[in-house]
Amino acid sequence: MSKQQYNYGATASTEVGFIGKRSPEFNTLCDNVVTNIYTINSSLKSLDNALKTIGTRKDNQGLRNTIHVTQLSTNQIASVTSKNIHKLKQLVSKSEKQQQLQVEKLEENFKEAITRYYSLQKDLANKQKSNLLVSVSIENDYTPEEESDQQRQAQLAREMAFEQDMLVEREARIKQIEADVLDVNEIMRELGSLVHAQTETIDTIENSIDHAAGNVEEATEQLVTASRYQNKYRRKLLILMLIGLVIVAIIIVILVVQLKK
């Protein structure tokens, strides 16, 4: 059966051009992410070699312990790297296009490494469960010739205890193997959480803009209405003034006529 070839990459695959003015925190986080991705890729090589050894004559408890420790360490590095990328996203503003591209490249390299690691972990788990190692043993301190009823009962009890111990150890080892598999979905959710938060913020801003635009339109209509009322008021005032002037003119004419008499 042909085995899928993994491209584990090298330091060159995780390098990103560091251009432009950057804060010390941004520099440190980028360097940490690059180093962590390289470490994950190195763990992939080690675990792939271990995968090929499981089930062979070289398979032993020491190999299984090494696999367990390597996965625990890599899982921790993956979790830290996810948080570092999350912080980088928060540090970069929309105006810093070069830094945005840099962070996106780091995130892409990290996701690729984690995807390969998760796939390899599943292969390791399946193969380890198919080739379980158990360390439970039972001592045989009697010979068939000397066997008595009491000895047969004691032997039967030892065999039952042995089988029970094997079942318990088998279950414990399977649980450990399954627990070592990284929850890659949680990593991806953590990486995407900031994007969702930013989307919600953008939606809130857009809603605020729409609300403000609605208020502006309403205010404009009110101003137009007020302007109409003001024009009507001015026309009425002008008419009243004209009527007043006419009345005053009539009164003056009457007074002048009476004075002439």
Description:
The chain is mainly alpha-helical. Helix content is 80%, strand content 0%. It is built from six helices and no strands. Helix 2 packs antiparallel against helix 3 and helix 3 runs antiparallel to helix 4. The radius of gyration is 42 Å and the shape is rod-shaped. About 8% of the residues have low confidence.
What proportion of the residues is helical, as a percent range? over 70%
Largest sheet composition: none
Number of H/I helices: 6
Q: What integer value in Å does the Rg equal?
A: 42 Å
Structural class by sheet pairing and helices = mainly alpha
Record field, number of beta strands: 0
Residues in β-strands, percent: under 5%
Mean pLDDT: 77
SSE succession: HHHHHH
**How far is it from the N-terminal to the C-terminal residue, by CA?**
137 Å
Low-confidence stretches: 9-20, 196-205
Molecular shape: rod-shaped
